[in-house]
Specification:
5 helices; about 150 residues; globular
Length: about 150
C-alpha cells in the first residue's frame, strides 16, 4: 500500500490531482527527508532539510507530516527561526531515539549499526502496510544546490 493520499489534499480537484501525481515520487522524497534527519541527530527544521537536500519546501514539507504520521520522525520540542523569521519545529528521526535508548544514552554508533537501525525502521513501516522505496535503505545523497527531484 502506498502512503494514503486522501489526507494530503483539501478535497479540491486540483489539490487531489496534485496529491495523486506526487504519490509515486513521495516515497522517494520521504526517504530523502528521513535520511537527512537520520544523519543529523540534533534535529533540523524543514527549511534546514530543504537546504541540505537542495530541494524546495513545497516538495519536502508534506513529507515531514507523512513521516510524523508513520511514526518515523518526531517534534523535538525545540524551535528555531526559519528563513521567513517564524519559529519552526525541529524534527528528529525516531530511530535515533531507539538507538540511544539501547546504547544507554550514548550517540556513539558504528556505521553498520546505524545502517541496520535505519533499515529496521523502514521495514517496520513496510510491515505496517506503507510502501517504501527500495532506496530507502540507503542514505540518499543531497541534490545540487537549487536542484529538484
Amino acid at each position: 500500500m502506498m502512503y494514503p493520499t486522501e489526507s494530503n489534499h483539501r478535497g479540491v480537484d486540483t489539490s487531489r490531482e496534485a496529491a495523486e501525481t506526487m504519490a509515486p515520487l513521495s516515497n522517494r522524497l520521504r526517504a530523502i527527508v528521513h535520511g537527512i534527519l537520520f544523519e543529523h541527530p540534533k534535529g533540523l527544521t524543514v527549511d534546514e532539510v530543504c537546504k541540505i537536500a537542495g530541494m524546495r519546501r513545497y516538495s519536502l514539507q508534506p513529507r515531514h507530516t507523512e513521516l510524523l504520521k508513520m511514526g518515523m520522525i518526531r517534534d523535538t520540542g525545540e524551535r528555531r527561526f526559519n528563513e521567513s523569521g517564524s519559529r519552526a519545529i525541529v524534527w528528529r528521526a525516531t530511530v535515533l531515539d531507539r538507538m540511544e535508548a539501547q546504547a544507554g544514552g550514548t550517540r556513539a554508533f558504528g556505521e553498520k549499526r546505524m545502517r541496520d537501525a535505519r533499515r529496521a525502521d523502514w521495514d517496520r513501516a513496510a510491515n505496517e502496510g506503507f510502501e517504501v522505496p527500495g532506496s530507502a535503505h540507503v542514505v540518499p545523497q543531497p541534490h545540487a544546490e537549487g536542484g529538484e527531484a
